[in-house]
Amino acid sequence: MSSLRAFPIGAMVRVALPCLAIVLFAFPATAQSNSSNYVFLLASGFLCDQGDSSTCPATARANQGDTCEMSGAGTFDAQSKSVKAAGTYVHKSPSGRVLETGVWLASELVSFESYGIAPGALMRLGAAFGPAPFGPKRLPIFSSPMPTGGLAVFRIRLLPMRGPSRTAVLQVNCALGNAPRERQVEGIRLTLEKNGAEFSEEVSGRVMFLSMRPEVSAPVKTPQQEPAPDSAEPPSS
Predict the structure, then answer these.
(1) pTM of the model
(2) Distance in angstroms (rounded) separating the CA atoms of residues 70 and 90
(3) Taking CA atoms, which of 122, 130, 194, 215 is between 20 and 30 Å from 97?
(4) Element (H, E) at 170
(5) Is the CB of residue 90 less than 8 Å from the CB of residue 69?
(6) CA-to-CA distance for 41 and 71, rounded, in angstroms?
C-alpha cells in the first residue's frame, strides 16, 4: 500500500482524469455497443464550466459541516454490475481547511436505477463542447452517447495520500429524464463504511450518465443490375 501513496499518484491523477473524461466521450466506439453499458462523468470533462465553480467538483456536506469534494469518470454495465472508474477527493473542515486528499477507485456497482434518456441535455451544454468536430451538431442522436438520468450506487476505495485506505459507498444522482420528485437535486452522497460518517447533503456539482447505444448502420443497398444490351442483331443492309 505504501507504493500506492507515493508522490507520483498525485501527478498521474491530475493528468489521467481529464484525459479519461475526454477519451470516454470523444471515442464512444471503444465501448461495447450494448444498451446496458454506461459512461458516467462526475464533475469532470465537458461538464465543467470555468466560469461556474458550482459545476466542478461535486460537493457533499456532512451534518457537522465537513465537506467532501469529488471528481472522476468511468464506465459500468448495469446488467453484469461491472465497473471501472476512478477519481480524486478532498475532505475539508467546516472552515475550509483541507483534512485529507487522495484518490478513489470503484470496486463494485451496487445498483443503478435509470430515469430515462434526455436527448436535449447535450444541446443545453453545447457551449462547453468547443469547436467542431465535438459540437452538438456533430453528435447524431442514435450513434453517440445518449444523456440519461439515474441513480448509481458504487462501493469505492478511498486511497489517501497519507494514512490507511478505507471503503465507502458513493451515490451519484443525475436528475435528467423522469427523475422522481425526491431525487430532483443533482449531485453526490458519500457514506464511510467503517465509522458510518455520512456526507448526505448534495451541495453542488454536475454529473451525467451517457448510455452507449448501438450504432445505427445505414441499410445495405443492393447493387442495381445493369440493363442487358439489346441482343437483337441490326437489320442487314
Answers:
(1) 0.73
(2) 7
(3) 194
(4) strand 166-174
(5) yes
(6) 8
